């Protein structure tokens, strides 16, 4: 079973990844292709967060799984927006 602390740590990591990605997405809209490296890094952080949360969900209790699933959906939303945006 996942500990409350480990769930909180991974949720915080995911929130940080979302915040960073949203910042890079905003910059991309302003600068177009000039922040490509940071944009790609933000997308990679989102993917890593999804992967880690997926692993954690397997050992969580029902409440933790729900919290993790909600966070994964938020990450996926941001990731989809970044993928769809014509950033080249």
UniProtKB/TrEMBL annotation:
InterPro entries: Uncharacterised_YtzC
Pfam families xref list: DUF2524 (PF10732)
Keywords for this protein: Coiled coil
Domain of life according to the entry: Bacteria
Coiled coil: 4-31
Protein name in UniProt: YtzC family protein
Organism annotation: Bacillus suaedaesalsae
């Amino acid at each position: 079973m996942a500990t409350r602390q480990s769930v909180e740590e991974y949720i915080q990591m995911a929130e940080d990844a979302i915040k960073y990605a949203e910042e890079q997405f905003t910059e991309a809209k302003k600068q177009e292709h000039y922040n490509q490296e940071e944009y790609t890094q933000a997308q990679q952080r989102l993917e890593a967060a999804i992967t880690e949360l997926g692993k954690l969900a397997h050992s969580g209790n029902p409440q933790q799984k729900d919290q993790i699933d909600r966070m994964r959906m938020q990450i996926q939303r941001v990731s989809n927006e970044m993928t769809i945006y014509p950033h080249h």
